[in-house]
Amino acid sequence: MITDCDTLGAECGLKVSEKKTKLTASTDGFDFLGWHFEVQRNGKFRSIPSEDNFKAFRKKVKKIVNSSNYGARVKAAKLAPIVRGWRNYHKFCKMDASRFSLWNMSHRAFQVFNRETKLDRHTSQVLLNKAFPSVPYSENRHIKVKGNKSPYDGDTVYWSKRNSKLYDGITSKLLKKQSHTCDYCGMKFTSEERVHLHHIDGNHDNWKGSNLIAVHESCHDYIHMSKKEVEIINSSQSQNLVTKRLGRGDKGN
Description:
Number of helices: 8
């Protein structure tokens, strides 16, 4: 099997390291990139967060919740991206176990939030929902690569369409509307850059489809950078105009 992998990897200039490679029965399971993969006795494949991954995540959450340096609102703000990121990373895993529902962690956080004299139970619950945002998951729904396709085969059309399926909601609709191309530069989306949503009118509370476009992360940065440059130029021109008018007024006096 290792020989076959070497043959396949040679096309991309890759070689399997025997020291770092382990052959194991699929029914015994193995850990890889924070997941635990295993084939159950009924023949069904299962993927869950690995023990080490869950422990590391729990340690981060516990450190923030038990910290005496932050108030409940700050703790909620710090917990939200950590919890959302962890749940997003594992959204194709089997996450219905009580441990992965994070009930124990959220219950502990609620108790800590509720101790603050400035917060009532309702406010504590609102902060808890903010600290532990829900992320929908769907077991084994990862989009498989078609046939012998490779990210290095130059087929940007296929890969941009496939990567677009990893998004949902408004982003997914915009990608289909824009034929999986960036509205700013016109290039296809690839896995090398994230897809960003840009608010045309600058109002981040306006989520109407007509006010949004899907762009590359770098293009999004360039758009806002260009706007700042225009604002600086306009501000400079206005100041020069005021200075000239004042200068003319001084001469008139």
